[in-house]
Amino acid sequence: MLYAAPHDEPAPTGLDGSELAEMRRAAGVSQSELARRIGVNRTLVVKWEGGRQPVPRSTVGRILEAVAKGASEPVVRPDRSAEVFSALIELVRAQPGTAVRSLPRRLGARKQTVGAAVARARAEGLVHGTRGLFPGQEEPAPPPGKLRLLRRQAGWSQEELGQALGLRGASTVAGWENGRPVPPQRREELWRLLVEVGPQRAAERRAECRRAILETFAQEGFIPPDRLWREKIGRGEFSEAVFWELVDEGALHAEERLEPIVTGHDKTVRGFCLGPAPVGAPLFTGDELRWLRLRAGLGQAKLGELVGESKTQIRHYERGNQAISAPRAQVFREVLSPLPPGEPRQAPGFLSDEELLSQAKAAMLAESGLPARQLVQRFNGEVRRRWAAIALLVDCGWAEERLERYQDSTGRWQRRRVLYPAGGAPPGRTPPPAPGRLSDDELVALAVGVIAATPGLNTGDVVKQLPGDMNRRWWAVRTAGERRLVVSERHVRSLLWYPLST
Description:
By secondary structure, the chain is α+β, with helices and mostly antiparallel strands. The chain is built from 23 helices and twelve strands. The longest helix is centred in the middle third of the chain and has 37 residues, at 184-220. Helix 14 (286-295) packs across helix 16 (311-319) and helix 15 crosses helix 16 (311-319). The model is unreliable at 1-12, 261-265, 339-348 and 427-432 (pLDDT under 50).
């Protein structure tokens, strides 16, 4: 008869899992250290202490011996921060553009030590750059609006400027003009092309355009406006500004001609010819009226008020639906005041860009801390141009824009854009916080304290240690960095924060 062999059960060792955990904690030994001393995996030690697996009898002696040694001496690493900082500065000066990710390997130091050294070097202005480090302070990037203006003044297209910088196509330059930051290694060459090469290039382009316009009119003699806008100016062969300068100078003039059509009748066609206008021919075309009106900064309704016409009548004149008589053409010329080439056209009461900026700055200095919607109403000009003037003040650093809390008529707390002169807002402008709620400055100071207590935390870990609303916590960390109270270092996809003194 066959019997099943009894299952071999491990003999009791006399060392329970809870006893092992108490002995280990009393000796100050971690699970990893105990596993390393007895030559097993840490997972096995966790199973022993949790009671999921008994402690083998053959291991008890080694466990008792390892626990009896007590806690090992802590590993004291030498402070290499000064050495790493000096080596970092020398490396960046010798090899500009060194990748930040390669610094721990090149310097032979831990990532935390290298991150603190990079943050300190950036705070002291010794290096700059995000992915790659360059010596010296970072050159300020041109504001997007100013970059677009300088490019147009220099006569560059986005594609031509991209090719001059060694880029592919116009998408990169378009991104810079829309607010994307310009890389530090591109800024010096970009400024040189816009500021140094730009005026000379613009003068050459204008001279080429004048020559091309005069040669074309010399060959063809008479060009109707519809063909001129469609085939020449519409395709960018001629500059509209240079064309009307030639008209002002008398090098071109408007003229009417009779041309036969299919039905056998003659049709009056208006166009432009080479040379000054004949004496006694005060012809004034709708296209010329539209150009002079736009150059003067007047709308159709405003021009109608100045000459005693309706807006609809001005529209008919500009579209060519109705001919402009000689007396009416003389009135238009007097109101729009044609000026010599190079001088700005300004109708009575029209403010230039410089005058509009001066009024905006004066309004902001007269009453600091105004919301943007109220500041726009403090000076004259077209609404769109007034908003553009305020945006240019902020872009050029003449004004500081901040979001501040206020209490509306219903008692709710809202946020609004408030503008101050450069130098910061005076204290006491923000409404007092609700009872038990930290003010903005207190929350920022608390964020700085958390970062100073534990350097190297990422943004999420700092936010977890702050009280209050989650949006305000994130805002406090970002504001501490913007005020240069702390410094940040990008690591993979997160920002590591360090105190400024590190």
